[in-house]
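Hi all, posting the design record for the shared folder.

TITLE: backbone redesign
STEP: 1 of 1
STRUCTURE INPUT:
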């Protein structure tokens, strides 16, 4: 916005080529740490392995700060950074220097010896980002063919949106020998900013697996015996056979007991009759029939079960937060086995979790295992499961009680839904907002119609789409109604903040419409609360929308906050707003039960009722406190 602007905080500014002290650089590092680590991870050579790249990327960013509290760093021009922050520009260049140096081979040294020691060190664990889809894997393979400077040019263009002239200067300053050639090489890979922003390339969202468990045993004899057993099993699995072993990408067996063997036996898989759901007392995953053309492929099912029980080192494993990654305690239920795009996909249910196994149609190299909690899921929460994502689209397996499936743009509440074809329970591909982070011209959701009504669900990067509701906490209803669609329309893009968090439901509550002090209309306030499958980690967002603007902005957020939830259905939030005349105001609003609001800090003001308007200065920081009609005090959502 030019004439109207919403701002929560303003970083200190300085001119290009000006000095930036250590504290300013440290503030930029803390604020933009995930993005800097992502840049380092993408520029480092993919051939190092995902775990090594993660540790090295964190090491490069943490070493980017100048040494000494009083030292100043000079930012070379141009210094385009996050919102013009020169501290960020300085750190980005330091990270590029380190990543390009790590990617530059030096004669006489092996690759690992050329890298700086990764600090912090992590002993006994392999850390790697969450697995993405086929598109992310293809992009990673394409980037592996580029030189370090070419990867840096690709990342600076696709992730940082820098012009070629500035990229050339940055690469030259970072020590690249042929910046023009690097740009030319980067032009050979299609720009895909959505994929660069995906969890596949997020070194801050990690999975952990053990490495040296045997060496850490206390008794030498036990360690030697276990190592010998593993060597024997490895030799048996690796016997020449012209293909993979019967367990595919699974690790060697480590236990022999009846329960473990039963859980790995495809013949004991639970398969529900296609009509059982019609007479069942509950509509949940336990009454889903087994579907897909490969439900009789015993070899595929055996590999999927074995990988779930003991994923090998090459398996890409991911799990939603709070989900246990161990194998099934007994024979699980088979929900699907078939081919999706170019992969064989198997989906199991063990009563608490959904497990999705995927392998390339031609082999097991690149197999992936995804797990998600679904305990207590019924109705809409048990009505759809992700089969796969590719080419910016997603396909779902639909519950047998769903009569109609459609897609709709959440940002266009007055448009009609588009019917979606369903064949043997599998939907036609539809656009996935989870594959388009940072670009939000639309937000496609699933509309599911059953005998109990119509509901909306959205892809947030999980196996189970999140259920969307609307209304006051404690009495919220489906978001598919006219009021719910209007409430969500300006704030659909805010759902991007809840991606990959194990989200179960997201509720939108329009709690206030505040008249603007310049008479230009009324601003809308909404609270969006994301509940997770694990219970903790809930997220509350206070969203602020201006009249005439299609998209709102996040004014405040809280994690594990009770505000805007069933236990505390109240909310208070504020924002700095710039009028068309250039005046700055602190605007604050609470729900209808708010009797008064007080502001402290850089803005001192008080007002009766659920609204507060006070003149302020650009960048002012204020604290908020409200009082409800019953005398209860509430704090502003942070």
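Okay, here is what came back for every position:
SEQUENCE:
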């Amino acid at each position: 916005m030019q004439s109207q602007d919403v701002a929560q905080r303003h970083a200190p500014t300085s001119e290009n080529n000006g000095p930036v002290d250590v504290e300013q650089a440290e503030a930029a590092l803390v604020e933009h740490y995930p993005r800097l680590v992502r840049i380092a991870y993408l520029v480092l050579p993919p051939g190092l392995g995902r775990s090594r790249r993660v540790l090295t990327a964190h090491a490069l960013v943490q070493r980017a700060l100048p040494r000494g509290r009083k030292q100043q760093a000079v930012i070379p021009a141009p210094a385009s950074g996050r919102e013009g922050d020169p501290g960020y520009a300085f750190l980005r260049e330091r990270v590029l220097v380190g990543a390009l140096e790590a990617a530059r081979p030096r004669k006489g040294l092996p690759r690992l010896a050329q890298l700086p020691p990764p600090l912090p060190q992590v002993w006994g664990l392999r850390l790697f980002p969450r697995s993405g889809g086929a598109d992310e894997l293809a992009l990673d393979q394409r980037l592996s063919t580029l030189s370090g400077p070419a990867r840096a040019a690709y990342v600076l263009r696709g992730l940082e949106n820098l012009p070629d002239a500035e990229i050339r200067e940055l690469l030259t300053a970072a020590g690249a020998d042929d910046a023009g050639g690097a740009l030319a090489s980067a032009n050979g890979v299609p720009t895909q900013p959505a994929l660069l922003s995906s969890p596949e390339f997020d070194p801050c969202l990690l999975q952990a697996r053990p490495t040296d468990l045997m060496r850490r045993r206390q008794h030498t004899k036990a360690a030697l015996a276990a190592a010998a057993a593993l060597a024997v099993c490895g030799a048996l699995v690796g016997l020449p056979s012209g293909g993979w072993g019967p367990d595919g990408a699974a690790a060697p067996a480590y236990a022999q007991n009846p329960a473990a063997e039963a859980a790995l036996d495809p013949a004991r898989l639970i398969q529900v009759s296609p009509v059982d759901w019609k007479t069942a007392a509950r509509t949940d995953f336990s009454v889903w029939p087994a579907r897909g053309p490969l439900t009789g492929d015993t070899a595929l099912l055996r590999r999927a079960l074995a990988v779930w029980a003991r994923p090998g080192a090459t398996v890409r494993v991911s799990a939603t937060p709070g989900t246990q990654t161990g194998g099934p305690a007994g024979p699980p239920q088979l929900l699907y086995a078939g081919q999706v795009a170019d992969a064989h996909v198997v989906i199991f249910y063990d009563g608490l979790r959904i497990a999705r196994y995927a392998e390339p149609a031609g082999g097991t190299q690149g197999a992936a295992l995804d797990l998600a909690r679904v305990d207590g899921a019924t109705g809409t929460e048990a009505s759809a499961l992700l089969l796969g994502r590719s080419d910016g689209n997603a396909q779902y397996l639909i519950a047998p009680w769903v009569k109609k499936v459609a897609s709709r743009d959440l940002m266009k509440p007055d448009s009609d839904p588009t019917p979606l074809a369903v064949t043997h329970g599998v939907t036609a591909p539809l656009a996935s907002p989870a594959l388009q982070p940072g670009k939000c011209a639309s937000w496609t959701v699933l509309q599911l119609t059953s005998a109990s009504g119509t509901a909306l669900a959205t892809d947030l990067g999980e196996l189970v789409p999140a259920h969307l509701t609307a209304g006051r906490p404690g009495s919220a209803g489906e978001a598919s109604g006219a009021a719910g669609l209007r409430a969500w329309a300006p704030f659909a893009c805010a759902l991007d903040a809840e991606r990959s968090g194990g989200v179960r439901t997201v509720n939108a509550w329009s709690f206030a419409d505040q008249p603007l002090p310049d008479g230009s209309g009324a601003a809308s306030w909404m609270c969006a609360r994301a509940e997770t499958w694990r219970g903790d980690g809930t997220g509350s967002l206070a969203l602020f929308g201006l009249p005439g603007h299609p998209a709102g902005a996040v004014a405040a957020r809280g994690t594990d906050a009770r505000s805007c939830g069933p236990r505390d259905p109240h909310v208070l939030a504020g924002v700095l707003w710039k009028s068309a005349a250039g005046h700055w105001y602190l605007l604050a609003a609470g729900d209808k039960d708010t009797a008064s609001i007080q502001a402290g800090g850089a803005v001192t003001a008080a007002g009766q009722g659920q609204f507060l308007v006070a003149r302020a200065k650009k960048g002012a920081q204020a604290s908020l406190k409200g009082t409800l009609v019953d005398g209860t005090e509430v704090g502003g959502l942070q």
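COMMENT: The two ends are 23 Å apart (CA to CA).
Let me know if anyone wants the other runs.
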